[in-house]
């Protein structure tokens, strides 16, 4: 660009504040890139390109750029411009910046900060040199060149950082940009070394959040990731203000054990007041305290969802173990017909001609009284005599989460019901051909946590009740029968 005029801009701030803002406030060098991209977003840019090299960094956008007055405001720390005009003029975006100090973040990593801007028929270049600033005394004026506008360039701003004092890891830069800028906003794209960045997509159960308080809306989504994808890296939920992440919060999840590694997601609360470096919230503000009350409710919902998921997982596990225990007991009864209360039991492959065990699971129908197992539908036939209907035990379920499985023993069957009968309830009991096992009992809770003993434990209870069905007069004889059945159930063929 051709230079039309040379002048200076005065920085209206105490130098000690500049030091605090630049070198102390922004301790992480990658934060300055976040600030520059968010400034472009506030200026209605639809595209921001970041190029990171070994000697310099270039951040170029196609936003509205700055006119002469805007350039003056740009270097006025503490300007209330974005507070008075909280929406961008063209796209009506909620502006992220508030304090007007983001550009000084470059002092944490670069010795030279160059700004080239164009807005319609105004163009200028400003060179912010750290060494010159240190040599100056009370007054501080920045060289400013008024340029001939470039019609090919169009409106926008380019920031060039040179004399880098810190290195930039591209992976870490990408992570900070994805977290700290509103990539989900419409008509806004960010490129890092010519590669477009997209918001990270997390797999899992998504729980949408929309709550309100007197200060505004709290929205977003919490994701419960699969156990296989649980990660201790970046724990907590991202809290965003105007689309940009401020920090992650656990909201009490530190007491949840391993489950905390499965909880991800983001929450948006634009009304939250943030600190000047946008790394934290003003914790003692009324807005933040009201936000915490909303999040207590939200995390209660998440905890209940996790609990229901754990219950379903435990139900599936219990159902598989009951099935295995029944199949082993069927084999033992077939080998010992004299121990069976149901008479001789044919033994063969499951579902085969030999009349093997048919183990089925009843459907859960809620809090009902007596449930009758469904009969197989038979088509009428003239050539075949009608088959005698099998008698199925009546199962009384106490809770809708009961697990019921049935084992066919010849023409008869026995049902097993795992349900919750209270900690003080019996470990197991029988009613007719139904065996009830108490999932609240302390022994059940202990043994169900051990994969090696779970099946053996249930088989012990089932053989005990089946033996008592065969021999009701003498517990000693029943015990001997149980020992024989249990032994044969776990002899590997």
Summarize this, please?
This protein is of the alpha+beta class and 493 residues long. The chain contains ten helices and 21 strands.
Count of the separate structural domains: 3
Question: Compute the gyration radius: what is it?
Answer: 36 Å
Overall morphology: rod-shaped
* The CATH class of the largest domain: Alpha Beta
Overall helicity: 25-40%
Most strands sheet: 9 strands, mixed
Computed structural class: alpha+beta
CATH superfamily of the largest domain: Histidine kinase-like ATPase, C-terminal domain
Layout of helices and strands, plus pairs?
Elements: E1 3-10, H1 15-25, H2 31-42, E2 47-52, E3 56-61, H3 68-74, H4 81-84, E4 110-119, E5 122-129, H5 130-135, E6 141-147, E7 156-164, H6 170-180, E8 189-192, E9 195-196, E10 205-213, E11 216-224, E12 237-241, E13 244-249, E14 263-268, H7 286-335, E15 359-361, E16 370-371, E17 395-396, E18 403-409, E19 412-419, E20 428-431, E21 434-438, H8 442-447, H9 451-470, H10 475-489
Task: Write a structural description.
- The relative contact order is 0.08.
- The chain has 3 domains: 3-196, Histidine kinase-like ATPase, C-terminal domain (Heat Shock Protein 90); 205-283, no CATH class; 312-373 and 390-489, no CATH class.
- The N and C termini lie far apart (88 Å).
- A hairpin with a 2-residue loop joins strand 18 and strand 19 (412-419).
- It is built from 10 helices and 21 strands.
- The chain is α+β, with helices and mostly antiparallel strands and 493 residues long.
- Helix 2 packs across helix 6 and helix 7 (286-335) crosses helix 9 (451-470).
- The strands form 4 sheets. A 9-stranded mixed β-sheet has the order 1-6-5-4-7-3-2-8-9.
């Amino acid at each position: 660009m051709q230079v039309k005029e040379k002048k200076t801009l005065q920085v209206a701030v105490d130098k000690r504040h500049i030091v605090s803002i630049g070198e102390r406030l922004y301790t992480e060098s990658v934060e300055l890139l976040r600030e520059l991209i968010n400034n472009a977003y506030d200026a209605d840019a639809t595209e921001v390109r970041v190029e990171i090299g070994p000697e310099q960094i270039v951040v170029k956008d196609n936003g509205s750029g700055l006119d002469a007055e805007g350039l003056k405001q740009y270097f006025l720390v503490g300007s209330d411009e974005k507070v008075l005009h909280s929406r961008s003029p063209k796209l009506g975006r909620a502006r992220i910046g508030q304090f007007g100090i983001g550009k000084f973040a470059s002092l944490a990593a670069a010795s030279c900060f160059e700004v080239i801007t164009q807005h319609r028929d105004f163009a200028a270049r400003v060179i912010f040199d750290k060494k010159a600033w240190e040599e100056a005394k009370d007054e501080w004026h920045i060289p400013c060149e008024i340029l001939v506008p470039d019609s090919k360039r169009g409106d926008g701003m380019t920031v060039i950082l040179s004399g880098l004092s810190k290195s930039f890891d591209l992976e870490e830069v990408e992570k900070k940009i994805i977290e700290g800028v509103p990539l989900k906003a419409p008509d806004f794209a960010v490129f890092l070394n010519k590669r477009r960045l997209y918001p990270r997509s997390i797999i899992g159960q998504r729980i949408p959040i929309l709550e309100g308080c007197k200060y505004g809306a709290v929205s977003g989504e919490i994701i419960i990731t699969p156990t296989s994808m649980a990660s201790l890296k970046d724990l907590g939920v991202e809290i965003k203000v105007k689309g940009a992440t401020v920090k992650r919060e656990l909201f009490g999840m530190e007491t949840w054990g391993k489950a905390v590694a499965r909880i991800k997601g983001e929450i948006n609360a634009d009304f939250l007041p943030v600190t000047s470096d946008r790394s934290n919230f003003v914790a003692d503000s009324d807005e933040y305290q009201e936000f915490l009350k909303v999040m207590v409710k939200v995390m209660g919902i998440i905890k209940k969802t996790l609990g229901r998921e754990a219950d379903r997982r435990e139900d599936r596990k219990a159902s598989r173990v009951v099935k295995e225990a029944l199949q082993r007991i069927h084999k033992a009864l077939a080998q010992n017909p004299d121990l069976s209360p149901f008479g001789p039991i044919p033994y063969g492959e499951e579902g085969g001609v030999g009349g093997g065990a048919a183990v089925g699971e009843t459907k859960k129908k809620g809090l009902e009284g007596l449930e009758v197992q469904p009969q197989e539908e038979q088509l009428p036939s003239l050539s075949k005599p009608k088959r005698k209907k099998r008698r199925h035990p009546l199962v009384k379920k106490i809770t809708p989460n009961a697990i019921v499985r049935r084992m066919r023993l010849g023409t008869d069957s026995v049902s097993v019901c795992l349900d919750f009968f209270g900690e003080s309830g019996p470990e197991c009991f029988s009613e007719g051909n139904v065996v009830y096992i108490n999932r609240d009992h302390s022994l059940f809770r202990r043994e169900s946590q051990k994969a090696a003993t779970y099946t053996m434990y249930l088989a012990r209870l089932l053989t005990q009740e089946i033996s008592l069905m065969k021999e009701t007069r003498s517990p000693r004889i029943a015990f001997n029968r149980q020992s024989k059945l249990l032994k044969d159930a776990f002899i590997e063929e």
